[in-house]
Amino acid sequence: MVTKYIFVTGGVVSSVGKGISVASIGTILKSRGISVSVQKLDPYLNVDPGTMSPYQHGEVFVTQDGAETDLDLGHYERFTAIELTQASNVTSGQVYSSVVAQERRGDFLGGTIQVVPHVTNEIKSRIRKVAEISQAEVIIVEVGGTVGDIEGQPLLEAIRQMRKDEGRDNVLYIHVTFLPHIAATDELKTKPTQHSVNELRRTGIQPDVILCRSDKVISESIKDKISLFCDVDKEAVISLVTSETIYEVPLLLEDARLGDLIVRRLGLRVAASSLEEWRDMVARLKAPKEPVIIGLVGKYVELRDAYYSVREALCHAALAHNREAKIEWLDSEQLDGSADDRLRQVQGMIVPGGFGYRGIEGMIKATRFAREQKVPYLGLCLGMQTMVIEFGRHVFGTDNVNSTEFDASSAYPVIDLLPTQRGVEQKGGSMRLGTYPCHLVPGTIAARAYGAKVVYERHRHRYEFNNRFRQPLEEAGLVSSGLSPDGRLVEMVELRDHPWMLGCQFHPEFRSRPDSPHPLFLALIEAAKETLVEGAQTSLPLNLGR
Ligand code: GLN
């Protein structure tokens, strides 16, 4: 079997939906029975985004094998329903460290180490590794950033060489650009796209397909112009108009015949596309539905990419209940606890993952509100820890209950470093990462939600429930409902005297798919649906959980 490669570059500006386009190409190829895998090449020099601030990078997506990766991998997994590995996110930082390590070992003895061929060879071998691991027929590779970025040059040079190495019929280049709209003349402009394609050509890459993102429909004459100036067949100038929901993008691309074009150009023998279930899902997503209002309490709420997978998981679960997840973004630094009207307007609450003390006290206030007012609550990683801290403060009758992450000298350190984390000084890639089994205690809300005895979930944390406090907290009504196989790590907790309050030390949001929502999110929405909020149901506008 010959592996085929699709390389996707971006031009003009960032944030035009390149990651969603790549994921959608995966969806339309899979719908033809083609096996695919996806990879992202990131130009920056960090080894991975694990140590980057959400302000820089948005969410860190964790793969099942424990890699801390770009949030685009979340799109790839949600759109293609495949589980990726650490090989699917390569950064320039990884590439250079590996080349320098080879040089120190003496692998190139006598040679001068250069970007071409040493760095580009390393990039190519990492692209081929995905083909080898996945055995997929088509590997879709997204190059991060926009053409012209200094750090991106070696990546572009490597993918240019791939066409020569792998054969012209086995490689396809897709360039995603943006057409700005000038309101005064009501025109879409093609010049930035022309410049961007010129920049790409300077690296030796002539795109086969141009995906034109725009907020307005692209006319035939605009397509003619791009086709002429960029030397791309008109059928390969594809319009990507901003859609109501990201899950519509595969349908837009399919209807623009991109799938047929890729299959033809790469000489793939395939079945006819069947996107009927996806189409049905998108239709249900777009149909007006009663909202279910979920408060999301975090310190990066102005920056919604920081909680991307949580937001999507809510949207998927709500859809399965024929509801629309309406997220109330609650800035934890500005929450006043029970006095806060915004907390009174939610039917369910999520405290998602996070690091550092800033905003913690607000999360604890929100958690307390959920416990006292019996609001359905799902705590994700840090949200489980705030749940244990808050319950501890209630049980021990003091605010001197904390995680040692936030107060090293707390009298009641109910959350403490994992034993394996003691003495760990290196910050990058050193947390408890990736999939671990969790045994569910029969009769708990966790066991009911999953309908299983053992589940496998993805972790990313350094701290855990401190077993020293297990007995007093359990006696007071905290139920340890999910445990590591040896029983030593409490992975899930819930409250005995509450209809639905649950915290998990892992991140279930990474495993939710639009057509297969996560059981914990499904159960949260189920409980939230039953929660009535005075006046809120009519006063809030509809959106699509975005
Ligand atoms: N900061 C906490 C820890 O390291 C929680 C991490 C998280 O929410 N991902 O344990």
Short description:
This protein has 546 residues and is an alpha/beta fold.
Helix content: 25-40%
Please report which band the strand proportion falls in: under 5%, 5-15%, 15-25%, 25-35%, 35-45% or over 45%.
15-25%
Number of strands: 23
Name of the CATH first level of the largest domain:
Alpha Beta
Bound ligands, named by name, code or SMILES: glutamine
**Count of alpha/pi helices:** 19
Low-confidence runs of at least 5 consecutive residues: 535-546
Give a written overview of the molecule.
It is a single chain. The chain is an alpha/beta fold and 546 residues long. The chain has two domains: 278 residues, Rossmann fold (3-Layer(aba) Sandwich); 238 residues, Rossmann fold (3-Layer(aba) Sandwich). It is 36% helix and 22% strand. The chain has 19 helices and 23 strands. Helix 12 crosses helix 18. The radius of gyration is 25 Å and the shape is globular. The relative contact order is 0.12. The C terminus is likely disordered. Bound molecules: glutamine. Glutamine binds next to strand 19.
Structural features:
Rossmann fold, binds glutamine, single chain, 546 residues, alpha/beta, 19 helices, seven-stranded parallel beta sheet, nine-stranded mixed beta sheet, disordered C terminus
How would you summarize the topology of this molecule?
Layout (H helix, E strand, L loop, with lengths): L3 E7 L7 H13 L5 E7 L11 H4 L3 E2 L5 E2 L2 H9 L8 E3 H14 L9 H20 L3 E6 L9 H14 L4 E8 L2 E2 L4 E2 L2 H12 L6 E6 L5 H11 L6 E5 L7 H7 L2 H9 L9 H11 L3 E9 L9 H13 L2 E9 L9 H4 L3 E4 L8 H14 L3 E4 L1 H15 L4 E3 L8 E6 L14 E9 L4 H6 L3 E8 L1 E3 L4 H6 L2 E6 L6 E6 L5 E4 L14 H11 L6 H4 L7
Parallel strand pairs: 1-6, 1-7, 2-5, 2-6, 7-10, 10-11, 12-13, 12-14, 14-15, 15-23, 16-17
Antiparallel strand pairs: 3-4, 8-9, 17-20, 18-19, 18-21, 21-22, 22-23
Helix pairs in contact: 1-3, 1-9, 4-5, 5-6, 12-18, 14-15
Bound molecules: glutamine.
The site of glutamine (GLN) has 10 residues, from strand 19.
